Amino acid sequence: MADEFLIKSANGVGTLRFFDREPFDLDQPIDRFWVQVTDLNVSAAGPVYAGYDNSHLAPLFAQMADQWQGWTGELEWGSLYQEFALRCRHDRRGHIRIGVRLQAHQGAWDFGWEVQSAVMAEAGQLDRLAREAAAFFGNPT
């Protein structure tokens, strides 16, 4: 069980951090987690509601690890209330761009600020990232 899941950008600038999973017990379906994105001169964090069937992020990271040699187009994941989204693209040269969009969700589809950024991963990191995602998010329901 991990209390956070951290992706440090391979280019040395930026991080994507998942933390404060609720409930903390990995045997329980995830209801909510927090995400923080940092990049050059910016840092933003916010809660993400995860109380629905497709909310689990571990399968996305497992899919990337299974397709480490590359995939066509983008692999995408978005939260139910659209406060958080990932768009993953493989350049087929061993680099993966994980595009991040995080918004302040103020209820009833009302949003405040929005941050867009990206972290870079390398194909050789994908197995480790998939294991760490599973350790943080737990088992899909």
Written as H for each helix and E for each strand, in order along the chain, the element string is EEEEHEEEEH
The span between the termini is 17 Å
Low-confidence runs of at least 5 consecutive residues: none
So, CATH architecture? Roll
Total helical segments: 2
What profile does the largest beta sheet have? 4 strands, antiparallel
Q: Over all CA atoms, what is the radius of gyration?
A: 14 Å
How do the strands line up in the largest sheet? 1-2-3-4
Number of strands: 8
Shape: globular
Structural class: mainly beta
CATH topology: Transcriptional Co-activator pc4, Chain A
Provide a descriptive summary of the structure in words.
This protein is mostly beta strands. The protein has one domain (4-137): Transcriptional Co-activator pc4, Chain A (Roll), CATH 2.30.31. 15% of the residues lie in helices and 45% in strands. The protein contains two helices and eight strands, in the order ββββαββββα. The strands form two sheets. The chain has a four-stranded antiparallel beta sheet, covered by helices on one side. The longest helix is centred in the last third of the chain and has 12 residues, at 126-137.
Short account of what is shown:
The chain is mainly beta and 141 residues long. It contains two helices and eight strands; from the N terminus they run E-E-E-E-H-E-E-E-E-H. A hairpin with a 4-residue loop joins strand 6 (84-90) and strand 7.
